[in-house]
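Teaching note: in complex prediction, the entire set of molecules is handled at once rather than each chain in isolation. The prompt given to students was simply: 'Predict the structure of this complex.' The entities are:
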Amino acid sequence: MSDVKNILLVGVGGQGTILVGKILSTGLMDAGYDVKMSEVHGMAQRGGSVSNQVRYGKKVYSPIIDKGQADILVSFETMEALRWLEYLSPKGKAVVNDYRIPSAPILMGKNDYPEGVLEIIKSKVPTTVIKAAEVAKEVGNGRTMNIVLFGALVKGMKLTDINWEEAIRQNVKTGMADINIKAFNAGLALVD
Amino acid sequence: MKKLLTGNEAVALGALEAGISYASAYPGTPSTEILENLAEYKDEVIAEWAPNEKVAFECVIGASVAGARTLFAAKMVGVNVAADPLFSFAYSGVNGGMMLVSADDPGLHSSQNEQDNRNYAKFAKIAMLEPANSQECKDMVKTAMEISEKFDTPILFRMTTRVCHSKSLVEIGEAVKPTKKPYVKNLQKYDLVPANARHLHVKVEERLKKLEAFSNETELNYIEWNNKKVGVIAAGVAYQYAKEVFGENASYLKIGFSYPLPMAKIKAFAAEVETLYVVEELEPFMEEQIKAAGIHCIGKEKITNIWELTPDIVGKALLGETRPVIDYDLSVVPNRPPTLCAGCPHRGFFYELAKLKNVMITGDIGCYSLGGSDPLNAKDSTIDMGASISMGHGAQKIFNRFNENMRTISTIGDSTFFHTGINSLMHVVYNRSNTITCILDNRITGMTGHQENPGSGFTLQGMPTTIIEIEPLVKALGIKHVRTVNPLNLKELKEAFTWALELDEPSVIITRWPCVLKKQSEADKKEFGNYFGKCVVETDKCIGCKACIKTGCPALQFNKGTKKVKIDESQCVGCEVCKQVCPVKAIKRVGE
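The expected output is the structure of the full assembly:
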């Protein structure tokens, strides 16, 4: 019944999902959409799993995305994609960063980092796997990994008509705008 | 102009546009950013962190009585701390308008219980507003001030995590220059001795009647007519969820002014619809009142009162609808629990603490509650702010009385000690127990994201201020045995524990080292120097014993294949706790 689209950004505290959520919602707002974005602050900054939910359309009510509802899942870390896969619609698609951050039980040797994560996801939904850390390094700044993923997201959601350069400039420090725009374009080019 | 704002940012902006000139709070998720944002408006608003919510609330009462428009904000459990002045201020009423923001946390994202603070409005007999998005957050602040002053009542401004931390579009208005009402001495109103308070109770009951009449008239409670087969009554974010589920297929009575409820309007709405649902998160606050008024409705018999509500929970409960999901085995994904950061000064402390035998470790609220997690496991309890010290005392008294060989060790942060720990420590001294109180002074309020506190040297609005030093403070309380140690030095910690355990009187161990994420002040730089560096494992020396892994540092990874440990250089800050733990000296500081 609703034209509302749902974007779910997930990762590990400190990976920059919140900045991407900000840029994304700025651009969507400027493009005339009603936008709601939800994130949970607090203990997440101590290395926990984090999510950032962006919903946009003509009129958005709920600020949160339910299980099976996301149109796209963008995971900044590999196994987080699997943790949050239940929130993706069976008709949705995934963009997954091939980038591992072991969690505490793995660091302690209690669990192994799960193998075959990408294969499981690929067997369920159309999936784009990106080595965003490498792309960001090629662009010239490893810390723009999140913006590379953002570029891939924009292409994946067919949102390329929006003026993203402006949205990026509004949300990053002046000196960092150009390198982030470069990272964004590199991310765009990664998705067909 | 429209902006995308969180509910908390919108409340701060609303305060600016409503002429609020005084605000006070103690940080607490999900309420913290309200004061942080208000603090930016230095010319218009005095915004202060108080040591605890009771103090904050009383400061706000003073400012209101003096004639200013005022705001208090707390997370839901913080309102408990302020409940004493709240119930009495509900009697006296206001001079300048007053609102108390209760930021509830359904789902316990970062809280110790799931209480529904709407009950405070009914309990204290004051008016309540419930915004459902950021625009309403902003607009309702102004409304709150008008209602507060018109009806002479504090306003409970009830938000929830999803209202506080979700962003939605807000139309920006004009800031107004705050003004103040004249202060008029009025003992009958503000002096709550029994002779006055007795009469004030009569006024409170009259006020409730007037507020109910207002509730029935105000557009804050409005009806959206659609299909009349289903009628939904909802407030706050639950209204958004109901809209998400029913869309145009139901009629709505949207409640913005939620206490006293608009019972006449509800009655009229109920009469028009075939089935009436009350969609509420947590407790049946509205449902019970509606049923008590003799109106049939369906609520908690279908919708759970446990954890956070979502549109799908509502849809499944009321329409039997379920959404298809991808089928896979989620159990293969290891947990990702929050951990103490690499270089956290609490790590070494808990590592040494965990070695002690025959101790009960009472914890408190803050990052250091993570000291109870694997692999440190050095905690027996967390109840509420300040409880570590007083609980420790009670337990110690009983262990001593029943001749059990047990000692209690209370662990509490600097900000939490200032919050309510001081009173508890006074009790320990006064009532002569031999507890060991450990004050983990990391020079800032950590967990909520680095707020200043009475020990940090700065106010919320950035003014340098007197640092309240913990060591002389606890001595002044009567603690004779005090040691301040460096928590990065395990030997110092161990010696301090041994020293304290031998004492038959109360002692305090202060661990003093800044939070690794703290932006260091000039005083910090002077005191602690630039200690940052990197450690590395000399792989040939590493015997794979995992001793360092037991510190739980996220920069250390054990490789099961090579049976060696590696340090992630991007995370390591060179705290050297792992270096001290290694039995074969395989870890060294880079450059040494």
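Point out the following to students. Chain B touches chain A through 55 residues (CB under 8 Å). The mean pLDDT of chain B is 97.
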